[in-house]
Protein 1
Amino acid sequence: MSSEWDNYWSGRGGAQASAALDGVGVETHAGIAAFWDSVFDGLTRETQLVDLACGAGTVLRRASAAGIGDLTGADISSGAINALATNMPDVTGVVCALPETPFADGQFDVVVSQYGFEYAGAAQAATEIARLVKPGGKFAALSHVKDGAIDKECAGKAAKAQILLDSGFIGAAKNVFASAFAKDQKAYDATIKQLAGPQKTLTELAASGMGLAMHIQTGTAQLFSRLANYTFGDIADWLDGNEAEVRAYLSRMDAMRGAALSTDDVAGVNAALEQGGMVASAPEIFAPDGADKPIAWIIRGKKLR
Ligand SMILES: C[S@@+](CC[C@H](N)C(=O)[O-])C[C@H]1O[C@@H](n2cnc3c(N)ncnc32)[C@H](O)[C@@H]1O
């Protein structure tokens, strides 16, 4: 799992980080920002806060803007933590795989997570979270909702990625390029014919707005029009790289779906928080874009002094 996220995070800075949740606009969603502002209200420069599965630091940026000075971000992906270090050099970045963390019991006043801790198995991660919160401290999270708006969007995107892979476009395109480089007219005519079906599928996916399909379509056409500038090896590498990108994207969509929490899962999280000495709030659905578009569970707990 971490390799998919690493593949995603490497080379991506904060400006592109919202694409982790394509279409949801986590980075810029006013409702989500307002939620975090309410969590951070009243906290001080000295508050010790950790964001678990922090990615490139979407929530930490908000915490910093709210004036909290002692910030830590933890994520399984070293690529994410590198992006965090670039975006927010003053934040302590830690690479670790939840549900285990290297932090001490009661190390933090505030533990937060945005579409994060649930990737590690929500109840086990909640046990760790309860361990990390100081007496008098709190936990707040926005988490994926089973059958919610993001879950549905990921299902649609995963289906498109699977169609692209099943179309066999990459293999068929490679065959065309191989025969073109070999200057084998007969093979070329045959491979062009075989490419027609997969190309139609790719064109439909691109027209439906699938970014990776658009990229592959445009790139393939450009390579073809400038064949003399490349070797077959260059082109095969580019095509293979794109196939790997589509597979990683599909895994990420599947991971997001797999992480989505049902009502029972959230009850399990709250039970684990309570077991760890916290008082858990009743779970709430967060639907800032309308009741038919739930985008998160709001999960909260506090540890009494
Ligand atoms: C959907 S992204 C959210 C990132 C960030 N919280 C945000 O809102 O932009 C999920 C994050 O969980 C991280 N992740 C997945 N499994 C993890 C695990 N077991 N432990 C720690 N982080 C994990 C991924 O690397 C990724 O950065």
Note: The chain has two domains: 2-148+260-303, 150-256.
Protein 2
Amino acid sequence: MADDVKWDLEADVVVLGSGGAALTAAISAHDFGAKDVVILERSGMVGGTTAMSGGMLWIPGNHHQIEAGISDSDDDIVAYLDSLAPGQLDPDTLGAFMERGPEMIRYLADKTPVRLHAYADFPDYQPYMPGAKPDGGRSLDNDAYSFERLGKWATRVNPTKMAYPMRGSLMEAVSGSLDEATLAEREKGDYRGLGQALVGALFEAVLERGIPVEFEKRARKLVKDGDRVTGVVAEDANGRDFRVRARRGVVIATGGFEWNETLVKAFLRGPLTGPVSVPENEGDGLLMAIDAGAQLGNMQNAWWQQSVLEMKPQHRNAKPNYLLGSDERARPGAILVNRAGKRFVNEAANYNAMGKAVVAFDAGTHTYANLPYWLIIDQRYKDKYPTFTSPPGSPIPSYMMQAETLEELAAKAGIDAEGLTATVARFNELVRKGHDDDFNRGDNTYDNFYMWGDPAFEAPFRTLGLIDQGPFYAVKMESGALGTAGGPRINEDAQVLDWNGNAIPGLYAAGNATCAVLGEAYGGAGGTLGPGLTFGYIAGCHLGTHLPNH
Ligand SMILES: Cc1cc2nc3c(=O)[nH]c(=O)nc-3n(C[C@H](O)[C@H](O)[C@H](O)COP(=O)(O)OP(=O)(O)OC[C@H]3O[C@@H](n4cnc5c(N)ncnc54)[C@H](O)[C@@H]3O)c2cc1C
């Protein structure tokens, strides 16, 4: 069949998507021996969700961590991940992540403009589990990167979605350590941190190598010759076919399926109503992999994130825009309640773990017990802290309800009033006592981390605070996600497996387009990009060093 195809373009390696996993795959395939590599990107911009993100990478045992004097051990890493994803870890892919993750970080440092540093005190997300690093070390942050280096291509990077000032690294932004003069200098040189820095630097590496990015090419169908994947058919902006031959192989790195309602309903363990990723992530890679006979895994899981509908259409199409809601709920003086007015979770817990509480099913009422749910704050909070896009003390944004009393607020929002007043009274009692007996909020370093907790207080009051100064406010929250976490299962070489466990020749995958290699474990800040870039790198190395039929 492949012999009949009239190709529009030919390359050794074709990478689908241009997020972190894809860019890393393209660069490493080139560096390890592939003659020509091409990237097909559905949108008109580079970077996908990665460019919008915090850009952190969770890679235990990386050289920046070791140089910062924070040791690690295989036993600890395995114990920690196994405690977060019991029975889900495949020893081969886990081993590849542990060995080649640090190798990938070294490669990026040596061969590309990517500059990372250990965010030394950023705690692992479940610091109370065995093998965790409660005082951090495994999460990597990006140095600020000057977009001047990209020249005319700077405008082609997808914008950020992070609420932090962008001129420094995340560490600099959160600690406010940059003085005015440095900030002005950074502004002048168009320095950007976080996911912008990561994608900017990876994109520079792509440009340096002369790897073309074919924009507005939506990959739709894999071409096979017998068992082997030999190319891909994409759809261009005019709906015409664009056929690209892949002499060595195709890497699916098209992100998750969170914006595809049919796939979300078919696979996820509960409702996903507010994805915060790029709207192009509609699961095209998953559909192509299914068509090619791929084995699927981890389909029920997403990288859960609490979000808020901002109502505004997203920049490139008419899809709604959902704001990230991780920090607001963890600050002192905020709680989350369900329609019964009850708290249901430690509000300072990490977003991925919390997402599983959000989609809990109540067999008694036969409903999702915690959907919908609301953030509740008071005037003291509103005057002091930012709430999503709304700075302290600013007018009430469209997504926020206000009322003089908790009873009125409950009536406006559709929450049980008795439940809400009783819950707030109970919460205030626990705050006064100094311990959250109901959900243990504030018991660990993650809950009290200064990025969301208020560093002006000591633990547990960095996250625990009274709600007692009206007017009161409610914000309806969505069951959101950074992306989905299921897809084609891959092996230690990032090759896609069929249902018999055999590699499908010529087909590779990385990032959120795959069955997450660490199952539902989200080890710490960078829990999706760490494995995503690692397996992008592994796919690139394998494609660079292996000719077809090897
Ligand atoms: C605000 C925010 C902060 C975050 N912070 C972090 C963090 O600090 N660390 C972390 O680990 N995770 C973070 N995440 C999550 C992280 O950004 C994503 O999990 C990660 O970027 C996914 O990378 P990816 O390469 O798999 O996909 P993406 O970066 O989403 O890229 C997928 C690309 O594929 C393209 N595409 C889709 N379909 C097709 C098609 N058919 N053909 C061609 N191209 C296609 C898309 O347009 C997109 O460019 C954050 C997310 C958000 C929104």
Note: Residues 310-481 form a domain with the Flavocytochrome C3; Chain A, domain 1 fold (CATH 3.90.700.10).
